[in-house]
Amino acid sequence: MSVPLLQVNDLKKHFPVNKGLFGKKTEFVYAVDGVSFEIARGETLSLVGESGCGKSTVGRAILRLFDVTSGQVILDGQRIDDAAPATMRQMRRRVQVVFQDPFSSLNPRMRVRDILAEPIRNFGLAKSAIDLETRVTALMDTVRLPREALNRRPHEFSGGQRQRIGIARALAAEPELIVCDEAVSALDVSVKAQIVNLLQDLQREFGLALLFISHDLAIVEHMTHRVAVMYLGKIVEVAPRRQIFAAPRHPYTKALLSAVPLPEPGAQRNPIILGGDVPSPINPPKGCRFHTRCPYVFDRCRTEEPQLRSADGEQWVACHLDELPEG
Amino acid sequence: MALLEVENLQTHFRTPSGINRAVDGVSFHVNEGETLAIVGESGCGKSVTSMSLMRLIPEPPGRIAGSIRFAGKDLLKLSDREMRAIRGNDISMIFQEPMTSLNPVLTVGRQIRETLMIHQGLDKQAAEAHAIEMLTLVGIPEPKRRVREFPHQLSGGMRQRVMIAIALACSPKLLIADEPTTALDVTIQAQILKLMLDLKRRVGAAIILITHDLGVVAEIAERVMVMYAGRKVEEAPVAELFRSPRHPYTQGLLGAVPKLGSSLAGTTTRLAEIPGQVPDLRKPITGCVFAGRCALATDLCRQYAPGLEEKGPRHVAACHYAAKGAVAA
């Protein structure tokens, strides 16, 4: 296989929290604690998990919105986690982002035209003023917004339209990878469907790779090629869509899937209801991080941390139970 | 007899740019012990409906008209004092945000005690004991310690449990739950839905569940009312509504949600889109409210608003063209 578009190796991001008088005693939030995965060109990888599992932090680390604690982020064979500002600038063009909240992620004082023109100017993509204008209008067509809207400001648009502007802004830089951080979560059902369809069309049209960060498993199943399930800063299972949804192996993945209410009245469902809450990422449990809520916990889970392993090279699971012979 | 009967409810707000008809002529009822779900997207008026039932709409700029009969009394005719005796006692409410709907400077115990002392006239000791009982009921571990804690010491799921404990403390006849699980993670949502189902069986309260999540509706509702642009567009028993939705908006809504397991059945087709967006409620709408987004709309729809018509057993929809009688699925 050729070089993957994006490679993430043992990524860690620990945020310091100051405790005690004068902020002396420093503790760390282990937001992301050793995460590795790859994304191929044109592929959608979804990162799923509950609040605080570190999925957004992974997205932000890839965008290099902050420096990572350790580990590597490799874009197209080149490390970007420690790239010098000049190199990084060029690499930034290739990875763009669409955020969750279309109300706060657009500058209210800029016209749509300027919002879209900014990345084109910054990366020197337009050859002339006419080329710039052509590009900006083409972007509006791509995201199916009327061209007249170019002179308006963000507050004049509905949530769904703003999210289209956000997507157009990401596309303006002609990226190869777009990080969608809960990009459809804040939208209403009917508008959500419009944006999901748009993202899928764009992926096909431009051969984009997507890192789709979401907690909505039904949307993820609809969109994705592969899924990585995160829990407390670690990936507990990665697999192609079919395996995750047909035969999840990690107890957390199973619980997560079974907890989603189905839009079918009277559907036969036996949700695995997990007790308790997600532990704090400041003091993650020793051993397997899921052991405090796992219905199948045994002694080894409390002391030894399971590593991601795979039997078939496709479905990777971090669970001691998974090593035992079937049956 | 119905526990709650709402007749032609109209909640309008005066705004600088005209009158916003947030709820415009909605009628429905809830029977004792029944769960009614009110479904719709942002701005359809579902939350304003629930706030109107509790008379929590500030007047002015709001104005509520119509009638809301609860156990024989018209709530809109009660004095503020009489209404206060009903809120939190006969009718109580759970809000979406457990983070902001609890008072951060009072202990959890004090907040549960408050309703008990005001409505049931319990003294402090008895109320405290009852508060601990309620926390046990909603599944909070170590309730004796938790009653003395403040909301910030609890997680989101725990806070929502506390909200439920407060709402159920006086054994209300009607519980209004406005998006009770929307802000929660799926595994916590599963815990809270199970809790609500268990409690309903034990306490026997009727529930009005306001939500946009069709999965949650299928899980716990018995009857569903679909709202669009301040009007009721369809109402049916839950199984009937999901099996044969009659209104094009309901059909669109159901088609726009991907189902878990769709990739296995090989049915990951394109999601159905409802083109366009919700009309501006500050302008009067002639004809059907959904006509602007409906693929089936004709001149008839644009001129005359359809009334709610019986389309099947206990199934009404407001559409000129919706099929009547039994429809093959």
TrEMBL record, chain A:
InterPro entries found in the cross-reference section: AAA+_ATPase, ABC_transp_ATP-bind, ABC_transporter-like_ATP-bd, ABC_transporter-like_CS, Oligopep_ABC_C, P-loop_NTPase
Compartments it resides in: Cell inner membrane
Protein topology in the membrane: Peripheral membrane protein
Keyword annotations: ATP-binding, Nucleotide-binding, Transport
Top-rank taxon, per record: Bacteria
Residue ranges occupied by any ABC transporter domain in the UniProt entry: 6-257
SUPFAM superfamilies cross-referenced by the UniProt entry: P-loop containing nucleoside triphosphate hydrolases
GO MF annotation terms: ATP binding
NCBIfam families linked: oligo_HPY (TIGR01727), PRK11308.1 (NF008453)
Physiological role: Involved in beta-(1-->2)glucan export. Transmembrane domains (TMD) form a pore in the inner membrane and the ATP-binding domain (NBD) is responsible for energy generation.
Sequence similarity: Belongs to the ABC transporter superfamily.
The protein, known as: Dipeptide ABC transporter ATP-binding protein
Origin species: Bradyrhizobium campsiandrae
Automatic annotation (TrEMBL), chain B:
CDD domains: ABC_NikE_OppD_transporters
Subcellular locations according to the entry: Cell inner membrane
Keywords carried by this UniProt record: ATP-binding, Cell membrane, Membrane, Nucleotide-binding, Transport
Membrane topology designation: Peripheral membrane protein
Function noted in UniProt: Involved in beta-(1-->2)glucan export. Transmembrane domains (TMD) form a pore in the inner membrane and the ATP-binding domain (NBD) is responsible for energy generation.
Family indicated by similarity: Belongs to the ABC transporter superfamily.
Name the UniProt record assigns to this protein: ABC transporter ATP-binding protein
Organism: Bradyrhizobium campsiandrae
